[in-house]
Prior knowledge:
By secondary structure, this protein is mainly alpha-helical. The chain has helices spanning 2-10, 12-24, 29-43, 45-66, 70-88, 91-112, 114-130, 138-172, 176-182, 188-204, 209-233, 238-252, 256-270, 279-285.
Amino acid sequence: MSGLAKWVMKKRLNAIIGVMVFGLIPVMFWLAAAILGLVVLRKGVKEGIPVLAWGCLPALVLWILQGDATALMVLIDVMLLSYLLRVTMSWSWVLLAGSFLAVISTLLQPLLMTDVLNMAVTLVQKVLSNEGVEVPDRDLIFSQAVMAISIFQVVIAILSLFLARKWQAGLYNPGGLRAEFHQLRLPIAFSLVLGGMILIGESLGGSFSILSQAAVPALVLPGLALVHGVLAKKEIGIVGLIAFYLVGFFVLNVYFANILVALCVIDSFVDIRSRIQGKASNSSDS
C-alpha cells in the first residue's frame, strides 16, 4: 500500500480520485478514509477539505440509495480526528475525542439510518425467534443497534487513521508509528474521565450505557500498547505477541478486555514502562 500512499501524495487530484473510487466500493470506504487522513496529517485541514468534499459525494450516493451513512460518518470522523492528531500530536486526545464522537453519533443514527436500523432490528427479532429465545422489546434492540453502529463507525475511523499515520511514517518518518504506539499512555485525567463514563453507563444503564460502551475501546487500545511496549523493551519479539493474543482470546476470553482496561488505568497512574528496564540495560548492569 506504500505505492498508493506515494501516488496520493503527489497531487490533490490523485487524492480526490482515490477517495472517490474507494468510497464507491462499500467495503472499501475505510481505505478512502485512510487516504483523507493521510492528506490532513501531511498537508493540513485546508488541503483536506476539498478531498473530503469530493469524497463525500459517493458516500452521499450510497446513503441515498442504500440508507447506509457509515461511509459518510467515517469520513467526517477521520477528518476531525486527523486534524486533532495533527494539532496535538497525541493519540490520547484522539481516543478521548473518539469516545465523545461515538456518544454524539447515537443522537444522529436514528435520523440518518432509520431504514437500516429497522431492518437490523427485524433481522435480530427473526433470528432470536427461530432460535426459540425470548425476543426483547423492539425499542431495546433498536437502541442497542444504534450504539453498536455508532461505536463501529468510530472504531473504523480510528483504525483508518492508524493506517494513514502508518503511511505517513513510512514515507517521511520510518518507524515513527511503532514508537508512538509503544509509548501510548493515557494521562490520569483522561483515564478518570473514561472511567467515569464506564461507571455512569454501568450504573444508570438504558440510554446511558452508550457512555460505558464508547469508553471501553479508548481504554483497551492503550492497554494493548502497554503490552506491545513492554515486550518490545524486553526484545521478546513476535513470539511473545502471538502468545499474548492466543492467551487473551482463547484463555481469558470475555475477561481480556477487562484486563486491558485495568492495565491502561494502572499505567496512567504508575507509568509501568518507565519502571521496566530494557534487555540492553539488564545486560550492561550485569
